Amino acid sequence: MAEPSDAPAGAGVVIVGAGQGGFQLAASLREAGFDGPVTLLGDEPGLPYQRPPLSKAYLKGDAGIEQIELRPAAFYTQHRIILAHGRASGIDRARRRLLLEGGASLPYEHLVLATGARNRPLPVPGHELGGLHALRTRADADALKSALAGTRHVVVIGAGFIGLEFAAVARALGHGVTVLEAASRPLARAVSPDMSAFFVEAHAAMGTRLLLGTGVVGLAGAGGRVTGVEATDGVVYPADVVVAGIGVTPNVELAAEAGLEIANGIVVDDHLATADPAISAIGDAVAYPSRFAGGRVRLESVQNAVDQARCLAARLVGRSAPFEAVPWFWSDQGDLKLQIVGLAGPTDSAVLRGDPASRRFSVFRFRDGVLTAIESVNRPADHMLGRRLLAGTPRITPAQAGDEGFELKSLLTR
């Protein structure tokens, strides 16, 4: 890599992290008319790609690498986006230089940290055995795809989004699947008890064995490879392949070592700026103020990263506005599409709309009579309406939400 000039003037925007947020920022800067240099630094080989399909279409073989790449190589050339491969090792804030492993550095006028998050390691004896997999990168998915050839027993540790999405794919591929979840219900951090109960039944119908309140104490192995998972119930569950999906840790080390504030993520204001006016941050590693959370929050969401990237791009070309996008999420599990809009608290009430037995229903969440979130299964109209309602002041009552005869669209014309 050529060593740029020491002077930051004309150095443009340097983005650390070539995931969905980093890519979107680079693309949005060009869409917004930014004409200076844009450098996108990633530590994975190849072109930037989408992560959500890794646990679904890519793993099943329904999509290849070309289908999950965010754009072909020609896009970056056409839009004068420099793709740099490497790993950042530090930030010289005084000189405005991003330090890279190997001794090189990049000057910047504005630095954006889109560093994302990494999977939490499984902290039990036997974690070094072959056959234990994570699922976050394309390399992870490639390794897992190879491991599943001929596999008969798969154990998934963790019944969050990734764990359940993978479990559905593994069952569709014909493998026996056991999911171990330490909590009392699946997706406990993300959805209501009603929605959790629905997915317990849905995965049972797929043929998955889902064991709740069951943690992991160790992995059994022979010849350096995993043969089973020892659980807190005293049972060793046979396993040819183990997939751990026990959450993520935000990648804040670069920011922390540079002296930026960290509090469950890189702390930014409502314009996504850190305390250093030359450094901003977006995506899964960022803790930002949100009216939907009633305070600072860090969200692990593709859409959140994309929305923050667009907001920041506008600020960097002089069209500054606070970040106020409505948070929304989705998860595909078999033929079920779960969509969530808003942020509900653990004590928010739940109002059912539709019949879960039909596999098309929604759960409306309320706090003190005010709508906070909508969880929908195979009911996209409710989800889209929720995005519009929550963007303003939601004028819907629990009684209206639960009344299938009430036309929800009428709320948008009042």
TrEMBL record:
InterPro entries given in the database record: FAD-oxidoreductase/Apoptosis (IPR050446), FAD/NAD-bd_sf (IPR036188), FAD/NAD-binding_dom (IPR023753), FAD/NAD-linked_Rdtase_dimer_sf (IPR016156), Reductase_C (IPR028202)
Listed Pfam families: Pyr_redox_2 (PF07992), Reductase_C (PF14759)
Transmembrane parts of this sequence: none
GO cellular component: cytoplasm
Record-level Gene Ontology MF annotations: oxidoreductase activity, acting on NAD(P)H
Superkingdom of origin: Bacteria
All copies of domain Reductase C-terminal, residue ranges: 328-412
Cofactor(s) in the UniProt record: FAD
UniProt domain FAD/NAD(P)-binding: residue ranges: 13-309
Assigned keywords, A-Z: FAD, Flavoprotein, Oxidoreductase
UniProt name for this protein: FAD-dependent oxidoreductase
